[in-house]
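Budget justification aside, the reviewers requested a transparent look at the raw inputs and outputs of the sequence design task funded under Objective 1. We therefore reproduce one unedited record. The lines immediately below are the structure tokens for a 182-residue chain.
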């Protein structure tokens, strides 16, 4: 009943979306290069992509809390009767679908029906990559963790500067010039 009610409420939204399909008519069907570009764009560079991919895999396999906390949960210290206890991989269960499902859905839909995929439409998945990569860094020993953080920053910094330079030199630079003069 809930699904039927939700579907009925979504019909006007789907119709409105269908009427506006011309606004995405410029999109092309994705290919393997598109998928690779997604990973590189999400990470910031090719090197960062491979580093973040390795850290994300490590983070996805990492337990979300230390052993002592896991023992308390196992004894029921954090969960009352009838409450669900958090799983060992709670972060993975949230971040991995967040990272993979929206791009996968848009790519498959674009290949089967009408192109609706753009890198811009999956930018909201970047925090999931950051969460998994951060969990991967946290799983490393302290010296490796610091080294991984320095390498990640060095790999991402050029892309970040390139993304921000046009804004700083454009309207933001003009605005700061006006503020400096007055």
């Amino acid at each position: 009943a809930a699904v039927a009610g939700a579907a009925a409420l979504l019909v006007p939204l789907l119709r409105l979306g269908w009427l506006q399909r011309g606004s995405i008519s410029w999109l092309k069907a994705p290919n393997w290069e598109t998928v690779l570009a997604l990973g590189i764009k999400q990470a910031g560079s090719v090197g960062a992509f491979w580093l973040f991919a390795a850290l994300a895999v490590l983070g996805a396999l990492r337990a979300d809390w230390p052993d002592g906390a896991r023992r308390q949960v196992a004894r029921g210290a954090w969960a009352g009767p009838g409450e669900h206890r958090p799983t060992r991989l709670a972060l993975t269960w949230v971040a991995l679908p967040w990272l993979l499902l929206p791009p996968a859905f848009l790519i498959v839909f674009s290949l089967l029906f009408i192109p609706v995929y753009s890198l811009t439409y999956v930018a909201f998945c970047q925090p999931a990559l950051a969460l998994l990569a951060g969990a991967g860094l946290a799983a490393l020993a302290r010296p490796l963790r610091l080294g991984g953080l320095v390498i990640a920053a060095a790999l991402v910094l050029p892309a970040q500067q390139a993304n921000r330079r046009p804004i700083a030199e454009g309207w933001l630079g003009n605005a700061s010039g006006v503020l400096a003069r007055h």
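The chain has eight helices and no strands. The longest helix spans residues 142-169. Computational costs for records of this kind are itemized in the attached budget.
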